[in-house]
Specification:
This protein is of the alpha/beta class. The protein is built from 15 helices and 17 strands. The relative contact order is 0.14. Bound molecules: 1,4-dihydronicotinamide adenine dinucleotide and 2-oxo-3-(phosphonooxy)propanoic acid (HPV). One of its GO terms (molecular function) is phosphoglycerate dehydrogenase activity. It is an enzyme of class 1 (oxidoreductase).
Length: about 475
């Protein structure tokens, strides 16, 4: 997305002031020196007058971005195309290295491995926004981020189809014991068997979590002649002939194949454990491509050894490694050897969303959301801040600015903000809240360069302030 046009007047720059304190008068953390130099740099590099090619609302070269976990080229191209400084790493980082790197950046892009905990985020004094180039956002402390004015974006469904297709492959593979037969052939053994190998036609698929992935899977499974039942905490419209069941237990009792598509939450931890395996049909199958915490793996091992569960496919695990290489060797998980020794179990390294199509689409979607947020302050699609959008800033008219004020959702803030903006013409103003956090955007005209600092300082002085940005 193009950044707004440069304005033909003495240069102004983007200004951001990022508070980690409830009251700016008594900050818990002083703004780091690098933040000051970012602002100074913006002023210093900005030419006094615009030329036709200068399309940025501020000096985008000052924005530092760290991309981890091999974010797709499509996303990298969009971000570098904006002129931001982009550092790209193929892997995630150990916590100590992450803390060192995150101190310096305005934007971080991650996938499912990088844990952005409060401990890590509290070091991120310049951070404006986090891009999760994946669906799940459980790896980020969303609440901490919101309380500190850090927006989080993800790609809510660009890899849903890829996960659904993987699960279809696994249903058939488990029913036909394909993993075992292939392994035997690789080892030189011809083992032609039909006992306990089944067609999937006419069997019942139980989908736990009927969201983007679950509902997509439902359509594909019905096309293969399966009956579909699903359980979800929400009442959701069935697609095709699928049928919602009122409890997880009911689903477990009916399904030949149980597949999990819930997010990682405290409620979904060990959602499938000893009691749930006991409820499942004899000889049924379990598939988990959601999060490693959702299945109690030692309980699965027991259920498979007893023959209760005839096969399983696991794409996700507790303690997934930061990079490709050894996992089970020296694994922290005591069950690793037992799991590897089971028959008819498909183990994959979290590849549900790993297709060219999904990764390209995610790269574009998340990078565009980041650009919209950095350049325009638009929070559309944010998972932790109120979603506020206004027309793209073109700034063709002189003396125009966009004020963004992220604040605690307490009474009386709008009045105070409007007192500060009252000197100027407010063209448009939008404010929305989500829980304790509110997000206000105002486009004002009739502002001079010297007004900007005054507006920002006055907003910063309000006790409700979390973060102030002025784009112009
Ligand atoms: N293996 C992989 O590579 C991938 C894994 N995932 C995982 O799959 C999960 C699901 O993805 P989507 O379908 O896109 O999410 P979604 O948000 O569209 O759907 C999740 C559904 O689970 C339901 N749910 C939440 N808690 C529940 C509970 N305790 N019991 C029953 N239902 C519950 C929700 O109401 C919702 O309908 C993601 O959160 C992510 O963790 C996502 C993409 C790729
Ligand atoms: O999109 C998700 O939530 C996934 O689990 C996929 O994660 P990944 O991008 O492969 O690290």
């Amino acid at each position: 997305m193009a950044a707004p046009r440069e304005i033909s007047r003495p240069a102004l720059s983007e200004a951001v002031s990022h508070s980690l304190s409830a009251s700016p008068a008594a900050p818990l953390h002083s703004p780091p020196a690098s933040q000051g130099s970012f602002l100074a740099g913006s002023f210093a590099h900005r030419p006094a007058t615009a030329t036709a090619k200068q399309l940025k609302p501020f000096n985008t070269g000052d924005i530092k971005i760290l991309l981890l976990e091999n974010v797709n080229q499509t996303g990298r191209d969009i971000l570098t195309g904006q002129g931001y400084q982009v550092e790209f790493l193929k892997t995630s980082l150990p916590e100590d290295e992450l803390i060192e790197k995150i101190k310096d950046v305005h934007v971080i892009g991650i996938r499912s491995k990088t844990k952005l905990t409060a401990k890590v985020l509290q070091e991120a004094k310049n951070l404006l926004v986090i891009g999760c180039f994946c669906i799940g956002t459980n790896q980020v402390d969303l609440e901490y981020a919101a309380r500190h004015g850090i927006a989080v974006f993800n790609s809510p469904f660009a890899n849903s189809r890829s996960v659904a297709e993987l699960v279809i492959a696994e249903i058939i593979s488990l029913a036909r014991q394909l993993g075992d037969r292939s392994l035997e052939m690789h080892r030189g053994t011809w083992n032609k068997v039909s006992a306990k190998c089944w067609e999937v036609r006419g069997k019942t698929l139980g989908i736990v979590g009927y969201g983007h992935i679950g509902s997509q899977l439902s359509v594909l499974a019905e096309a293969m002649g399966m009956s579909v039942v699903y359980y979800d905490v929400l009442t959701l419209m069935a697609i095709g002939s699928a049928r919602q069941v009122p409890t997880l237990d009911k689903l477990l009792e009916e399904a030949d194949f149980v597949t999990l598509h819930v997010p990682e939450t405290p409620e979904t931890k060990n959602l499938i454990s000893t009691e749930q395996f006991a409820r499942m049909k004899n000889g049924s199958y379990l598939i988990n491509a959601s999060r490693g915490t959702v299945v109690d793996i030692p309980a699965l091992i027991k259920a498979m050894r007893s023959g209760k569960i005839a096969g399983a496919a696991l794409d996700v695990f507790p303690n997934e490694p930061a990079a490709n290489g050894d996992y089970f060797v020296n694994s922290l998980n005591s069950w690793a050897e037992d799991l590897r020794g089971l028959n008819n179990i498909i183990l994959t390294p979290h590849i549900g969303g790993s297709t060219e199509e999904a990764q390209r689409a995610i790269g574009v979607e998340v990078a565009e959301a980041l650009v919209r947020y950095i350049n325009q302050g638009i929070t559309l699609g944010s998972v932790n801040l109120p979603e506020v959008t206004m027309r793209s800033l073109t700034l063709e008219e002189p003396n125009h600015a966009r004020v963004i004020y992220i604040h605690r959702n307490v009474p009386g803030v709008l009045r105070k903000v409007n007192e500060i903006l009252a000197e100027h013409n407010v063209d448009k103003q939008i404010s929305d809240s989500k829980g304790d956090i509110a997000y206000l955007m105002a486009d004002i005209s009739d502002v001079k360069t010297e007004d900007i600092k005054e507006i920002r300082d006055s907003l910063d002085a309000l006790s409700s302030r979390i973060m102030t940005r002025v784009l112009y």
